[in-house]
Each structure stands twice: as structure tokens, then as C-alpha cells.
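Contributing: when you submit paired examples, paste them exactly as shown. First protein:
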Amino acid sequence: MSLDLWLKSEKCPHCGRSDDPDFDWNYTYNVSKMWFEVFPNADGMVDIDGLTGKESLKKLETFKAAMINDPNKFKKMNPPNGWGSYTTFLSAIEKLIEAAKEHPDHIWHSWR
């Protein structure tokens, strides 16, 4: 199972139609235990669906800081099947942060 996230403006300012995503991302759900460690009441892994890039930054940066502050705790949560890891998930979160900063007014969408 995986999580797809994409960031896009709701409508094209010129024609009014929805445009293609400006950023899209897919990652294995096997690391969801790490996300839930920081956000136990989250509504799904990387629960930023519906937020703007700007609105998502605090949550994403909080998660990144938790991972960096206690890497051993998160490394112990590496999936035993090898699909996903602390290192690749941290890198993926950094990409989400970068995308949110580049597109602060765009909206996150997800598919689980």
C-alpha cells in the first residue's frame, strides 16, 4: 500500500480549469508508524490533505525535527520488509517541505 500526495492550484487563473499538479509524490505506507509516533491522532499517514502548502509547513517541519532529534527511535521503526526506511522517509519529508515552500497557496490532495 502507498500514499500519493500532490500539490496543485485549485483552478487555473486564466481559464478557470483545474491544472496539472505542480508536485506529486508517492511513498510506501510501511513507514506510517513513524508518522503516527509524532501525530498519534492523525487521519492517515502524512495527513496534510486539504491544507495549503503554507498551512502544511508547521506539521511537516515538526515531523522532520522529531526524526532528526531522535533518529534511533525512528530507525527502530524501519519496516522489516525493507520497503521504506528512516533515511528515505526523511528525504521524502524534506521534498514535501520544499514543495510546500515553493507553492504556498496550492492545495495538497491525497490518494490512499
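Second protein:
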Amino acid sequence: MVYERLFRRVLFPGYEAVARQRSTARYLDELEKNQWLTRGPLYALQLQRVNALLAHCWAEVPFLKTYWADHGLRARPLAELAELATYPTMTKELITANYDAMIATSWRGRTMTKLTGGSTGDPFRFEYTMDSYARRTAAMWRGYGWAGAGLGARTAYLWGTGMRKGGWGGLKDRLYHGAFNRRFFDVFKLSDDNVDGIIDAVRDYGPDAIVGYVAPLALVARRMLATGKRLSPVRGVITAAEALYAPERQDIEAAFACRAFNSYGSREVMLMASECDLHVGLHVTADQMVLETLDAQGRPVEPGWSGSVALTDLFNYGMPLVRYLNGDCATYAVEPCACGRALPLLASIEGRLLDLIRAPDGRIVPGEVFVAMALNWPQVRKYQAVQTATDVLQFRVALREGSTDGWQSGEREAVLAKLQEAVGASMRVELVEVDDIPANATGKRRISVSLENVASVPPLAGVSKAS
């Protein structure tokens, strides 16, 4: 706890303000106060920020000015948040088709670019500002703090590490994450042979909190329950990347002897919602975004009903996302949380279907592996990894328009090699190019499909090439 206080109040603010020239620590202080605003002041703050964003868009974002005017809108302040529903929604395809005109004129040349692997199977490139990144990071630390994994807490991440292995870069990564008091354990290389070693390494590390992807966390938890291995007490386990259902929650909580805290985020806006210690739903980061749930006509649905998620990021002035459909579905809770936070409450998030793929040699491949890979393939419009037989993985891709033969010289072979490396020599990889990858009967599309769920996958649409 001494180090946590030192890191939170001295080391982290100093690093962010001096070394990174960012206001992250100040934004975190602001967010920690905002969470206790009552409903009226929180609503007023949200409306003020929505109106400031819309005024900026009308003045500086060429595509949005035209798009909104074509829908009969004109520049004016909203009198209430409900009026935001008069604005049309936006899709990834629409933003991609009008990319340059989506960037605010005063921000041209000053934004940063990020590619999301697409947690719904639809990769997407977008721009953002450093200030919006600082605010998103602050929101993440507020949410993680509710689970005991705040700044400086000794935390084990069951994650895809992304860390460099050796040399000066590897040393910098170790020092950086060491200062944050966290360690990464690579679950992208899970297997029946090494899962016990990962459990032992986490036990030796002795974390106060754990963060991880749902499916690998559940697998590790079930192995711990089967072998009787336990960790020293931890404050909480934060789950990410996909929905946390009751069976996985029960096993994780039983194995780690603490409560699980579900979270909901995306690369476009980072943390959108997270559980507090009452565990009755996920509090939306409403002081930094508007999260709507909509019907098929783009109209808000009532609490208790599932709807498509539409996001309005209140601080990304570089490429503003206003009523952006991210491909997920969610349901707002009917009753508020009793914790005292007025931040709106999601009862559930639907979607994010990521099966574990089990290879014959015992290798266990989380669906997040394929999401991470897709970051490197901007020509891919949609993708899906399907285990069609015990020893066969079929990777299906629908390419973007204008991709002539699909891949540049050597790219197709490189993609096959990366997939083969991920699943190991005991599986054969097929790369199949298709016209489209349809959703299932519920409107969702699994990103990774295990052999036991392959029957639920709709038939392929327009196979153009397979190997």
C-alpha cells in the first residue's frame, strides 16, 4: 500500500506530466470526483460536453457537416440529451469510406492512428488525439481501482504480452512495467503442458490483483480447482475482452477466492464500463462518453431491452465518433446501483464470442490471438477462425474493396505462416477468401469457433480462393 500511494501521488503524476507531457493524473483526480456526482449534475456535465463536441464537428469536420445536413439537421445546441437521437448513426464502413473528411481541419497532421483488430470480426482504422488518450487511460485506472487493481497495485496480467523479449527494448519494457508494479503472463501460448507452469509463476509473483481475458482465466481457474493449487489472497480479478457468464464467473471466483469484476472496453475508446464492488452491473464512463442502446431504426430502447451499442466519444476532437455503432449489443439495467455512483448501469453486454481452439498436441489458442493478428492486416474487412476438424483450422477472410488480388507479394504466405505458428504443427491451416462472413441467427458473428460450436456457424458466402 505504501508503494501504491507513492506511485499514485508522486511517481505517476511526475512521469505523465514531465516525461509524457500529458494530464492523465489530473484527469484521474477529476474522474474520481465525478463518480460521486448526483444524477442532475452528471447529466448537465454530459450535455455540456455533447454540445461542445457537436459545435466542434459542425465547424471543423467536413464529412459530418455534409452528412448531418443531408439528414435535415442544422448546427444548434441540444436542449436535452435525448435530442442526440435525431442525429444519424455511423458505421465503420461509412467512416472508412470518408476517412480524410472525418478528420477535423485543425487537427490534420496532429492525430495518432490506431487499428483495431475488431472484437466483432471487423477490423477498423481510426484517428485520435493524445488528450483523448490521456482521458481514456484515466478512465481505465478509475475502473480498475474499483477492483483493487489501481495504480501501483501489484497486478498479474494473463494477457498477450506485447513485450519485447531482449535487448534495450526488452529492458525498457521490464523497467516500465516494473514501475507500474505489474507483470504479464503470456496466455497466447497456453497449452496443456504449460498451464501448470503459468499458475506456479503467478503464485510465485504473489499479485494483489489479476487482470485477464475471460476464456484463458476460466481455463486457468478450472485447472487450479482440479489440482488444488491456490494463490495467496487477491483483492479482485478483472475480466476483459468478452462477456463474463455465470459459469466462468463462479469458477474464477472459486479458484482465486475473491470476486470477479467484469469490464467492457474497445480500442476505439478503451474502457467503457466496469463493475463496482456490488456486482449488479457495469457502470458506464458517462462523464467521458455517451453510450446508447438502439433498435434496428437507430432509436434508443428502454432499460431491460437489448440494443445495438452506439458510442459518442466526448473528447476525441481529432476524428470525432458520434453515435458510432461498434458492432456490440448491450442492455441497460432497470434499477440503479446502490453504491452511490450515478454513472449509468449496464446489466449485460452481448457479443464478443471468442472460443478457445484446442489443437491435437495440447496447445490452447485463445480467440484473442486472432484479434491481435488482424491488427497487421489492414486489407482484411472481416475475418473468422473456425476449427472445422480436430486438426484443421479454417481462417476465413473477406477483403476490402479495391484489394485486387487481395494480398501484396508474399503477404498471403506470411499470413498462413503466422496462423500456423499460432496453432502449431498438429493442425493444418486453410486460408479461405470469401465475399462475406454472415452473422448467425442472433445477429452475432463469432470471431473464433471451436469444433464443438462449428455447427452454429452459417455457411460461407462466395468462396473465391482457398488453400
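If you have annotations for the second protein, write them as plain sentences, like these:
The mean pLDDT is 91.
The CA atoms of residues 7 and 375 lie 32 Å apart.
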